[in-house]
Amino acid sequence: METGLDNLCVNTIRMLSVDCVERAKSGHPGMPMGAATMAYVLWTRFLRHNPLNPKWPDRDRFVLSAGHGSMLLYSLLHLTGYDLPLEELKNFRQWGSKTPGHPESGHTPGVETTTGPLGQGFANGVGMAVAEQFLASHFNRAGHEIVNHYTYGIVSDGDLMEGVSHEAASLAGHLKLGKLIYLYDDNHITIDGSTDLAFTEDRAGRFRSYGWHVQQVDDGNNIEAIENAIKEAQQEKDRPSFIAIRTHIGFGSPNKQDTSSVHGEPLGTEEIKLTKENLGWPLEPDCFIPDEALKHFRQAVEMGEEREKEWRDQVRSYEKAYPEMAKEWDQWINNELPDGWDSNMTVFPSDPKGMATRVASGMVLNAIASNLPNLMGGSADLAPSNKTLIKGEEAFQDGHYNGRNFYFGVREHGMGSILNGMALHGGVIPYGGTFLVFSDYMRPAIRLAAMMGLKVIYIFTHDSIGLGEDGPTHQPIEQLAALRAIPNLTVIRPCDANETAEAWRFALEDRKGPVALALTRQGVPTLDRDKFASARGLHRGAYILNEAHNGTPDLMLIASGSEIQIAIDASQEIKEKGIAVRVVSMPSWQVFDRQPEEYRNQVLPHEIKVRVAIEAGSTQGWHRYVGEKSHVVGIDHFGASAPSKTLYEKFGITVDRVVEEALRLLKEK
Ligand SMILES: Cc1ncc(C[n+]2csc(CCOP(=O)(O)OP(=O)(O)O)c2C)c(N)n1
């Protein structure tokens, strides 16, 4: 039943959002005005959260996928008692404030994920629900349900239009993620105008066909109807829920409601006055919060404390009943690796024939998986190629939510965003694989993983023209450069099996953000580490693999991945001419860049000016390490369909070419 107090609270959300957007002279007031009622119902009657401890592990997750409506979330966080003072809301979108233009996780207490790029939050929520199911299945015992929460989201037309939401929705339906509940802010408006311009499909029908439980609420201000729909969604255990709620963007604004002009710009002084009059709101002061409304919202604090306390009591009794499991729970949720996690780490004997680094990666994954039972993931339908399968483990499927092998289907973008959701939820270490060339399909999600500093591992195989006959569509050229351009993403391209093992070790131990492994399809020799430096050097990004033993180096060859062998062979030929040459293995630019200057100078001394870098991909960026007068042997055009060996020869990624360039540079010096 709606009361005067309810109405007051809903209008408080609306007008707080409107006034803060006005102060900032930028932002989106329309969405919060239209979605205020559903947000109010969800946050005051359903959401199980503790504003004083936003990190309580068993809290319900809330995703505002339509991140442009950030003021809605900031209003809710402030009103329900999170550490987000009103002053912060008044500083909306300003330098140094806790209220950036779009919600940023890690920046504002209570913001579960960074949203703004439409569709991402939708798919993140699916990942969160996956993690919840996995953890519940792993830890819960009869009478001890220490993992039991919902994932809610508010999603918009834009979210539903974006392809990534199709991918994630399809998978969520297939997996029967019954504790995922999305409220669709069905307001018929986007920036360009009416959704009739470009979005006329039967949305409810679409979600039904994905296998979701679908409800419709015709009046977005009908508190009781929204409440009933959420209750019913909670009862539905076997299907994710989609509640389409017909709302009106800019609700309450006499001249702007139901128009796209409430998008991306403040209402303006005159229209705010009219809106306040229309909603029976005092004109002054701005950012007004009535005491009764605040008191009502702030009940969340006491309730949250109580609920968390109940949960903590439950955990205590769980600890008594299952001490070992409880210890594991602590480790997982605190993102700690168990002692000796790498005791089974593979050490590969030297072998001139060697193996593909993707094969080594699969072996390493399987060796470490038994000590890391929360390492879970899979591939976007390329598991046999990406070597992502953990042998002997179940698939994560309906009824088998303890499975660690995840089948993402041919959905790279969805996979990227779902991995982010899993990492954001916490408790699991997610990984996902595809061909390196298709990292482009998941780039928006990778970018956000890097921005949020999420611990996600990407297994990108078939990392060069070395994949051969599949041709230019499948041969990555610019992908390494493109990935290296993403701040806070660590790209590692190991040169052999043992560097691959170290790359995995790095990926698991590094806490800073996502790690992308670029791995070969083709075999590469496993280096004799008695002859060459230890693969542990990988942890410094670049290291002297083979030093010139015939004096101070006259030149350096620097390479990554499969091209290390070319560098080694070329160095032999050059040495035979009496020239002192150093070979540097450089699996990761970013890791190297993080090293102290002294180390970087030691590996790449300024004095050694003659340098040749070799990598079967775009040369972009390599000049930073070789200098302008040196040379990069790479590929700045698309590949071709032919056997790998032919391609290397035709494109000049050869020992002869490297020797030739090195000698030319030495002569020119
Ligand atoms: C991937 C992406 N493309 C474009 C935008 C720019 N943008 C912000 S809001 C918006 C329209 C949103 O319409 P809708 O999702 O219906 O939100 P509402 O109109 O209800 O506020 C667009 C295109 C974006 N944020 N993300």
Write out key terms for the chains shown.
six-stranded parallel sheet; 24 helices; alpha/beta; about 15% strand; about 675 residues; 3 domains; single chain; binds thiamine diphosphate; Rossmann fold; five-stranded parallel sheet; elongated; 20 strands
Topology (SSEs and partners):
Elements: H1 4-24, H2 30-45, E1 61-64, H3 70-80, H4 86-90, H5 120-139, E2 151-156, H6 157-161, H7 163-175, E3 180-186, E4 189-190, E5 193-194, H8 203-210, E6 213-217, H9 223-235, E7 241-246, H10 269-279, H11 291-321, H12 323-333, E8 351-356, H13 357-369, E9 375-379, H14 383-386, E10 405-407, H15 412-425, E11 429-435, H16 443-452, E12 457-461, H17 479-484, E13 490-492, H18 497-509, E14 515-518, E15 523-526, E16 543-546, E17 555-559, H19 564-576, E18 581-585, H20 589-593, H21 597-603, E19 611-614, H22 623-626, E20 631-633, H23 644-650, H24 655-668
Parallel strand pairs: 1-2, 2-3, 3-7, 6-7, 9-10, 9-11, 11-12, 12-14, 13-14, 17-18, 17-19, 19-20
Antiparallel strand pairs: 4-5, 8-15, 16-18
Helix pairs in contact: 1-2, 1-3, 1-10, 1-11, 2-3, 2-9, 5-7, 5-15, 7-15, 11-12, 13-18, 15-16, 19-24
Bound molecules: thiamine diphosphate.
Residues 28, 30-31, 66, 68-69, 116-118, 156-159, 162, 185, 187, 189-191, 249, 263 line the site of thiamine diphosphate.
Low-pLDDT segments: none
CATH superfamily of the largest domain: Thiamin diphosphate (ThDP)-binding fold, Pyr/PP domains
SS-derived structural category: alpha/beta
Bound ligands, each once: thiamine diphosphate
Largest sheet: 6 strands, parallel
Which value, in Å, is the CA radius of gyration? 28 Å
**Name of the top-level CATH class of the largest domain:** Alpha Beta
Q: In the CATH scheme, what's the topology name of the largest domain?
A: Rossmann fold
Fraction of residues in helix: 40-55%
Query: How would you name the oligomeric state of the polypeptide chains in this document?
Result: single chain
Count of the domains:
3
Cα distance, first to last residue?
85 Å
Number of helices: 24
Architecture of the largest domain in CATH?
Answer: 3-Layer(aba) Sandwich
Global outline: elongated
Strand order of the largest sheet: 10-9-11-12-14-13
What is the residue-averaged pLDDT? 97
